[in-house]
Amino acid sequence: MLSSVCVSSFRGRKSGNKPPSKSCLKGEMGRNEDNDKIVINVGGIRHETYRSTLKTLPGTRLSWLTEPDACSNFDYDPKADEFFFDRHPQVFAYVLNYYRTGKLHCPADVCGPLFEEELAFWGIDETDVEACCWMNYRQHRDAEEALDSFETPESQEDEDSGDLKRLCLQEDGRKLGWWAGWQPKVWALFEDPYSSKMARGTNGT
After folding, report:
1. Are 83 and 75 within 8 A, CB to CB?
2. Looking at the DSSP assignment, which residues form a beta bridge with residue 129?
């Protein structure tokens, strides 16, 4: 029969395959998270996120930062360990939030053309804009289409100027002499007393 001392000593022996402690696991997880983090400097504002977050939208410019050769393909600062983009920092916050939440919102204080240009740069489809922001985003384009639909009527002065230019040009495009251009007007002045106010005054009508 084993004594209580032997039993306690046997139970207290260290096995060769000791499981890792909780502190070791936490340290390993922390190192993995640090390796997955990425810093993006946009217009002087530093943004920090995970590479796994940028992979949620494949084929976009930010997703390319997760590729092994990203440091040589983009403006990368090894000392600061960050990528730099000289773009609009406020708009980029909405772009990055799209990767995090899956919802693309449009800032109310940024005009539509600017937001559209930034989306194109980052490789994001404008149709991904949320319904609550779509009207604000499309407002500039709707206004442009409305202005294009209006045709400004030509004034009578423009028409007269056009007729005069046509009279002063031959079919081959060369300019005529001043008399050849004004001759029809002068003839009408005497032959047709009602052609103009000057004609009526000249003919005494």
Report:
1. yes
2. 104
The pTM assigned to this predicted structure is: 0.56
**122, 60 in Cβ contact below 8 A?**
yes
Cα–Cα–Cα angle for 35, 37, 38, nearest 5°?
A: 115
| Three-class HEC string of 170-184 | CCCCCECCHHHHHHH
Q: Mean of the per-residue pLDDT values for the chain?
A: 75
Does an H or E element contain 203, and which? Answer: helix 197-203
Q: Distance of alpha carbon 143 from its chain centroid, rounded?
A: 18
pLDDT tens-digit profile of 25-41? 444 445 455 579 999 99
Residue 18, both tokens: 């000791």
Closest by CA position to 137, among listed 149, 147, 124: 124
Whether the Cβ atoms of residue 128 and residue 56 lie closer than 8 Å to each other: no
Exposure b/e, 10-26, CB count within 10 A at least 16 = b: eeeeeeeeeeeeeeeee
Torsion over CA: 91, 97, 102, 103 (sign): negative
> How many CB atoms are closer than 10 A to CB 121?
15
User: Half-sphere exposure of 168 toward its Cβ, with a 13 Å CA cutoff?
Assistant: 11
